Amino acid sequence: MKLLKFTLLLFLLPYALAANSFPQQQLVPGGIALITLNGDKQPTLYYKKQRILTLAHKGQWLAVVGIPLSAKPGKHTLYDDSAKAVTSFTVIDKDYPAQYITLKETPKNKRLINPNPLDLTRINKEKKTLSSALSTWTDQAVQLNFILPAHGRLSSPFGLKRFFNKQARKPHSGLDIAAAKGTPIVAPAAGTIIDVGDYFFNGNTVLIDHGQGLISGYFHLNKTLVNIGDPVTQGQTIAEVGATGRVTGPHLHWNVYLNKTKVDPAFFISDYIPQIQLNKTTP
Question: In this structure, which CATH number among 2.70.70.10, 3.40.710.10, 1.10.10.1020, 2.30.110.20 belongs to the domain 3-19+95-281?
Fold first, then answer.
């Protein structure tokens, strides 16, 4: 398998700029489906047993659906409360490139590649905490015109097949923005802080609930500047870029979740991601 080395041609535009009102539709694993629905009443719909975001748009209802990286190509269906099929969309395949990461052979890094039994106990406990936070559902107006959470360079895009010291690991589930330690991180949209913690792999972490299952996550932080329950406004500083958890250098790992599914954050700010040059090399 070949490595695609990513070289940024330009810096990301300043995070004060606003993106489109809606995320970009991409009917691929890790993408987003935008589905127009008829009816006077706001529908309650489910995809893979997870409730999905719906909002009024031009006299109709719009469903905003997160498609998991594990989704198979073909027909996918939305259901109502009675498990009746309501509508469907078609997912097409996408082949994400590979990324090989080498961590220095220190005792700490060896544990980050192959955790010991005590580490695994901690990791399993943290998975439950994160899963509980990501199950948050609040019925409220949702702000979809995201802004960039940090100013830096794109170091790793979403979906990469990752290898740490040549060992296969889960695909890259977010967007990495490399920046100096201490660089401010801001909320891309209004919301409420639902988790602040220190995790084995993710390091210092903040999660924001934006409403109706739309949640954003910020990982490997140097410092957190908010507490659970705090309301935040778009552009408010919530943390600083750091290098905590499993990292090779300071950067922000930014996740966006829809219906408890990780989707590519670039689809929320696609107009402000500059062109990336792909250089094929061997690992």
Answer: 2.70.70.10
